[in-house]
Design a protein that fits this description.
Layout (H helix, E strand, L loop, with lengths): L6 H23 L3 H10 L17 H12 L9 E3 L4 H16 L3 E4 L5 E5 L8 E7 L2 E5 L5 H17 L7 E6 L12 H6 L3 H7 L10 H7 L19 E9 L4 H5 L3 E7 L1 E10 L3 E2 L11 H18 L6 E10 L5 E2 L2 E10 L2 H21 L3 E10 L3 E2 L2 H13 L4 E6 L5 H4 L5 E6 L15 H19 L2
Parallel strand pairs: 4-6, 4-7, 7-17, 8-16
Antiparallel strand pairs: 1-5, 2-3, 3-6, 8-15, 8-17, 9-13, 9-14, 10-12, 11-13
Helix pairs in contact: 3-5, 3-14, 5-14, 10-11, 12-14
Length: 471
């Protein structure tokens, strides 16, 4: 005969079995049932646990294949890459990026100058989005990783999150910026400068031409943009349009590789000032004009180039740098004394005041050299004088946390190269993730980052975007 229980005993047993069953469920899921209910109701995680993102899976082989395929859109043969703004190869590369965004399920749009946006809508799309991205234009005879890792890697970071089952709260947006390089029109970070609201640039673009005397507006129209000459200002974004911006990029320097560190977290971006200088002399026959009677514009330029080096070193900081990247002499004949010289100078620092002091010293030297050499200083023009940018402290902390959770060592460092992030800082807090590159090479065909280093960067970016999207 089966055992008999009283009503009260049955109640106790029922409660006991329910408690064991409920405890087993909690142990299995390892989460508070109250939080689980609230998450189900709200549609997004309400705590900081990212356990479901601890084993992020990057399709390294597929990503490298995309990098190689994008490199084939080039006006010079492999292994070099040349992809100039609004050229035929640039237009084809843009189509390639739009297609990849679409395949990832992103909604794609372009603005009046060709900045491309791919958005993954979050559960609260009315909140300002978290953005990431970089550029794909390439200076003549450069490599295939500069900028590209930050665009294709960003798309793959979104794919990583999608595969993990992550659901963003804030929307996530990938941006491909137009013309980070100044190759064609002499304007660096053209797309992001405009997004940052540069009225001066809008006016300048109306009369800007390239080396073949093709106007910016005509070139843009040939690529399918700026259909209305007055719509360039529509590119402007209001401050706060994004809650955060994070850019993945190769270091373009040797530090991470030399120190064996997989991740660099950028705390500040040094900003350049560009200067154009011209001296006017008398010229003459190299044999007939005696040395005491010369007004040599070439020697004036050479002396100023050395003065640039001297003034930079006088700053006392390794963060101050200066480069004379262009020096042209007229008429450019071996047996003719230069009657005119043209030099272009790049000075950079993370300290704006210190950099500007160097610029003023260069100006005073140019005046003094012209006087002492009996030539005229026909031009001293500061082309741009952008302020440096600091990374957002909260974003630095998130990038650090992501690196630690992924067991990747990291180094806090300064970016001495120019990036679109500099101008995105005018719209939202920004941050940058660096990965190592071979010998620090960049802007040359030997530029290279390994699939493992790229995968590490994509993982840190993906986890950083996930964390920022939940804030």
């Amino acid at each position: 005969m089966p055992p008999r229980f009283s009503l009260s005993e049955l109640s106790v047993l029922s409660f006991f079995f329910f408690l064991c069953f409920f405890t087993a469920i909690i142990a299995h899921n390892n989460e508070d049932p109250t939080i689980k209910t609230m998450e189900d109701f709200s549609g997004y995680p309400i705590h900081e646990s990212h356990s479901h993102l601890s084993s992020l899976s990057v399709d390294a082989r597929g990503l490298q294949k995309q990098i190689d395929e994008l490199a084939s859109f080039s006006d010079t043969p492999a292994p070099s890459v040349t992809r100039v703004l609004y050229s035929e190869k640039d237009v084809l590369a843009r189509r390639f990026i739009r297609n990849l965004m679409g395949l990832s399920g992103l909604s794609v749009r372009e603005d009046a100058v060709g900045n491309i946006f791919g958005r993954w809508d979050g559960s609260n799309p009315e909140l300002s989005a978290v953005a990431t991205g970089s550029h794909i234009d390439a200076i003549p005879y450069s490599g295939k990783y500069d900028g590209v890792v930050g665009v294709l890697g960003a798309i793959e970071a979104i794919n990583v999150l999608i595969r993990s089952g992550f659901k963003p709260k804030r929307s996530l947006e990938v941006i491909m910026f137009t013309s980070e390089e100044p190759t064609r029109f002499g304007i660096s970070c053209l797309g992001s400068r405009l997004m940052g609201g540069s009225e001066t640039l809008v006016e300048a673009l109306k009369t800007t031409v390239d080396g073949q005397n093709i106007s910016f507006l005509d070139a843009a129209q040939s690529a399918g943009y700026t259909k209305d000459h007055n719509d360039i200002s529509s590119v402007f974004l209001k401050k706060g349009s994004y809650s955060a911006f994070v850019e993945l990029h190769i270091e373009q320097g040797p530090i991470l590789e030399e120190e064996g560190i997989p991740i660099g977290i950028v705390t500040a971006i040094a900003a350049p000032a560009s200067i154009k200088v011209e001296f006017q002399g008398n010229g003459g026959h190299a044999g007939a004009v005696l040395m005491p009677n010369r007004n040599d514009a070439g020697l004036a330029a050479a002396e100023l180039a050395l003065a640039v080096e001297r003034h930079v070193l006088e700053s006392g900081s390794v963060d101050t740098v200066g480069t004379v990247g262009i020096l042209e002499l007229h008429p450019g004949a071996i047996n003719s004394i230069p009657s005119k010289s043209h030099i272009e100078i790049d000075t950079r620092d993370i300290d704006e005041e210190r950099r500007n002091i160097v610029i003023e010293k260069i100006h005073q030297s140019a005046i003094s050299i012209a006087r002492n050499r009996a030539v005229s200083l026909s031009e001293f023009k500061i082309v741009n004088q952008d302020p440096p940018a600091l990374s957002g402290k909260s974003i630095i902390h998130v990038m650090e946390a992501a690196s630690k959770e992924l067991n990747l060592t990291h180094k806090l460092m300064i970016s001495r190269a120019y990036h679109d992030s500099l101008f995105m800082s005018r719209i939202s807090p920004m941050g940058m993730i660096f990965i190592p590159c071979y010998k620090g090479y960049s802007h040359k065909p030997e530029e290279y980052s390994s699939s493992q280093d790229i995968s590490n960067g994509v993982k840190v970016l993906a986890l950083t975007l996930a964390k920022l999207s939940l804030q």
